[in-house]
Amino acid sequence: MSLPTARTVPDLRACVAAWRAAGERVALVPTMGALHAGHASLVTLARSRADRVIASVFVNPKQFAPGEDFDRYPRGEAADAALLAGVGCDLLYAPSPEAMYPQGFATTVSVGGVSSVLEGEARPTHFDGVATVVAKLLLQALPDVAIFGEKDFQQLAVIRALARDLDLTCEIVGAPIARAEDGLALSSRNAYLTPAERQAAPAMQRALVAAAQALARGEPVAQVEAQGRAALQAAGFTAIDYFAVRGPVTLQPTPTAPFRILTAARLGTTRLIDNVGVA
Ligand code: PAF
């Protein structure tokens, strides 16, 4: 099944204009490709919220720092298009880097506050790159609703702040984390894991669930964070950037529920992130 594909803003806008003229509601699912069942669930959610679904596939160079995995990030447009067509996506938007950032492009969108903690400390330029490309995608497609996975929980908070602060009319919807049977959060970066690392990786979710249970029993936040880090170390994770109990909106430390527990750490050369909520 072949999927209609737009590669330029005028082509994208022509499709969207035709749908709007027919009174249809449009959803956008932004992605960086290497699509898996988690992305399929985002498209399925988008389908339930709109008449038409666009998925964008763009590996955004601006959100990778020098030395990160931009060059080795998995790419495969044919497989991505097949997956999208199979779950009812109407249009693939796959701009080239030159179409997204033409010569002379000189604007950076920077969201303060919620961007500055956790991932913002570990990857200081990351959220400027995300906010810049997401602002562009939302302005290019002008969707009624855009869907982002909760696996990147802080990214979702940053995008909500972006939409609020810039008065974007698009509704931002978070989608639950899709997990493998053993609990590992689905991620395109899981493809980097060796078989032994893949076996060890679900320990990250187990550490988060144990932390959520400890908080629910009333254990102090600092103790729960220390136990989480120890559990990750015992499972072979290194370079633990954070294992943090935070408030779910500001992502600032908080002594009382509701909480979001977020973590980022490496298994071998692969950096994994995950999070769980505590009501
Ligand atoms: O979550 C992602 O895949 C990316 O950060 C996004 C939102 C598509 C922006 O490049």
Characterization of this structure:
- This protein has 279 residues and is an alpha/beta fold.
- Helix content is 38%, strand content 19%.
- It is built from 10 helices and 9 strands.
- Strands 1-4-3-2-5-6 form a 6-stranded parallel β-sheet, sandwiched between helices. Strands 7-8-9 form a 3-stranded antiparallel β-sheet, with helices on one face.
- It binds pantoate.
- The site of pantoate has 10 residues, from strand 2 and helix 6.
In short:
This protein has 279 residues and is of the alpha/beta class. 38% of the residues lie in helices and 19% in strands.
Strand elements, count: 9
Principal-axes shape call:
globular
- N-end to C-end Cα span: 43 Å
The share of residues in extended strands comes to 15-25%
Number of helices: 10
Give the distinct bound molecules. pantoate
The largest beta-sheet arranges its strands as: 1-4-3-2-5-6
- Tell me the series of helices and strands, N- to C-terminal: EHEHEHEHHHEHEHHHEEE
Low-confidence stretches: none
Helix content: 25-40%
Q: Which whole number gives the mean pLDDT?
A: 98
Radius of gyration: 19 Å
Q: What's the story with the biggest beta sheet?
A: 6 strands, parallel
Helix-and-strand structural type:
alpha/beta
